[in-house]
Amino acid sequence: MRIGDYHGGGHRIIKSTVLIILLVLATVSDFKTYRIPNKLILSGLVISFYFQFLEGSFLSVLYSLGILLLICIVFLPIYYIRAIGAGDIKLFAMISCFVGMKQGIQVIIVAFIIGGVFSIVKLFYYHIFRSQLQSLAEYITQTYYLKKIVPYSSISSKKKNVIHFSFPILLSTILLIGGDFISLNVLLF
């Protein structure tokens, strides 16, 4: 039996544990430095490619590279206006290389929902909901009249307005993996 064969879910546990450890390290770094190290992302990608190779073939690795490229292209406009950080995009790409495109999309959707909730709570906590809504309206008006998309600097310029998006990404991944293992246990028992 190859390492890539799913026997009792052990392989999935190892793969998921490695992914969660990488995400915890990324989240800690994000909270401390507002950055996610490229070395961490690169290490995660190499590890995910290794798992892909063990599970399938070299074509699986090429498929993962395609996922990586697609996610970077899709999120480029959101990054351009500074609504999401480059490290967060790279985390999404790394996660999708670990779990596949379908589950990667699920992680992304749930992470945005969690991040949205965190954002709203933070806006009310700091009593800046109204001022940020006004800034957003000004940004939309400016973009409309200039006919050009520019970075939304109001959010990125004040650290108290920043959401460490790596944390919703971590939570989303844990929810996905937890749901996966619940399904796996139901099937096994």
Automatic annotation (TrEMBL):
It comes from the Bacteria. One of its GO terms (biological process) is signal peptide processing. One of its GO terms (cellular component) is plasma membrane. GO terms for molecular function: aspartic-type endopeptidase activity. The keyword Transmembrane applies. Belongs to the peptidase A24 family. The chain crosses the membrane at residues 12-28, 40-59, 65-84, 105-128, 162-188. It comes from Anaerosporobacter mobilis DSM 15930. Signal peptide: none annotated. Pfam families: Peptidase_A24. InterPro entries: Prepilin_IV_endopep_pep (IPR000045), Prepilin_peptidase/N-MTase (IPR050882). Residues 18-120 form the Prepilin type IV endopeptidase peptidase domain. This is Prepilin peptidase CpaA. Keywords: Membrane, Transmembrane, Transmembrane helix.
